[in-house]
Amino acid sequence: MSARDEVLGRIRAANSAAGHPLARPVPREYARTGTHAPGSAAVLELLRDRLVDYRATVVDAAGDVPAAIAVALAGVDGPALVPAGLPDGWVPGGVADTGFSPAELDGFAAVVTGAAAACAVTGTIALDAGPDQGRRALTLVPDVHVCVVRADQVVETVPELLARLDPVRPTTFVSGPSATSDIELHRVEGVHGPRTLIVVLDAP
Amino acid sequence: MGHLRGEQSFPDAARGALADSQLRRNLGHATTTIRGKRAAVVAECDDWEELRLAGEALKSSTMARLDQHLVELEERVTARGGVVHWARDAHEANAIVTRLVRETGETEVVKVKSMATQEIGLNDALAEAGITAQETDLAELIVQLGGDLGSHILVPAIHRNRAEIREIFLREMPGVDPELTAEPRRLAEAARLYLRERFLRAKVAISGANFGVAESGTLLVVESEGNGRMCLTLPETLITVMGIEKVVPTWQDLEVFLQLLPRSSTGERMNPYTSAWTGVTPGDGPQAFHLVLLDNGRTATLADEVGRAALHCIKCSACLNVCPVYERAGGHAYGSVYPGPIGAVLSPQLTGVEDNASLPYASSLCGACFDACPVRIDIPSLLVRLRAQHVDANRGGVPSPEAAAMAAASWVMADHRRFAAAETASRLGRLLGRSTGRIGSLPPPLDAWTGSRDLPRPPAESFRQWWARERGQGRARERGQS
């Protein structure tokens, strides 16, 4: 018998030995939506607070995204990497990804991307490899990640965040910069992923 | 079976750990820190109990239809260009992974921290086949370089302090800066430098999975450092070993677990990074993806009507951090890759209780683990059940000293005259504990008790004597007259 058939057979026998347990209904009384509308001032304020708590930096675009990106990149030496679908004019001098190898990606100090959605309560930004975000490796190897989040992409809760995403897209959830707590549970920001996360908040 | 049982019983292993004051200091500091962080972020959620109830119901529903969910997961992963393999046990899983790595022609792999691959002893199996497996999680790296074993599900190097980690790095990490200090930031930096070029050149990665979504075929890895993202994204081939209990029916179900898991495990609102992928995506990430679905005792656990709840565990490790036994004995004493309260339940169930007979007793049954468990696994009740199974399996033959003592105690306590006589006799114990107020050792067979703990000196007066004096018939009559 194949391992597949044997394991599936064992599961059926086990469930029968345990008295054919029923799949009981799942109580979903937990908060599925927030108390504030997506993109509202309260939700943006909460996101800002959570991001700062995670040692991310927040730059308000105040209607001018390219200027805010320039502020975010001020300390970066050399050109920034950008996904091919990033809006024109956001990063003058940015180098579009043409399928660089991991070692070539390591040559860039910074990357600038958009985002798919964000959750305020947890300070989480979701990237789903859309044209303005590019493949997953882009936001991983360079040490500075500048991420532009539009106000209308910000929801309050985790359920609202997941509902906005398509599960079959390769997705990365980012909450602050890379961090570890493995040494005496002392939190250290910056291990293998980008050590600096700068979020440009684009609110009208 | 892999790494699910130790060479010593829990009491023997714990005795050594209890004598290690450095270990107890490190553990005490770590568990206290994480308990505080967890309590603070859990208190932020007004709907925490509702989330726990949903998590519990989701898990038991999933187990009730586990075969269907796994078949659906397999279908979806295959439809998206992945290859699904099934493994009955540790040996079979190791053989599959070894063959898959060999087929790539590589002899080095990078690994994401994974309990399933630890459970099956994958690194040893790969080493026998001439394949080097590089752990990339900082704690796993510390354990690997130290030639050590993990002692905690989430932070395997929790038993080491910064000075010990510095020593290990200086001794084992080629090219490390000799000026390295014990500052956590510097130690993390050293790990970054050591692993960076390995990530950039890796062709094959091996991971576990925190969740596998049946309806979409999506796998998820929850992590903090970015080492997971490196392994899941940069290599050409990805091999994921997932316990069959990790499947969740729908993408929506993740809204429960992605809230429960980070707050329970690291005490964060959300862990820094979570990666989700479905099969193969052209132009993004590994172009060859293999999923190995692992049984290794899980279906045997599922067969127990009550004990199957141990499979609900999402490996957050909250129960370890609140357990008074774990905090003192440490993770190595459990002898399994799954230490702490959940390990004391899960390991004997995966191996069969007679193979891990001392673990169900490694608990004070105080119940803190149940309160901390995000999916409401009733660990104390499961431990009592396993103890009963162990006792039942050992009926007949010569009773153990403990069983004899309990039988004697029950005979004495069943009759009030015998009990009163025993109390009077126990006052002799006052002679033994005169100077310290404690009795440090008793003659055999009573030394089975005093060998691991002091006995308080019996009081000058028993409760029954006090009651007779203060509230007894004579006293009551006096009161009635006054």
From TrEMBL, chain A:
It holds the Pfam family LUD_dom. Residues 110-201 form the LUD domain. Signal peptide: none annotated. It comes from the Bacteria. This is LUD domain-containing protein. It comes from Pseudonocardia broussonetiae.
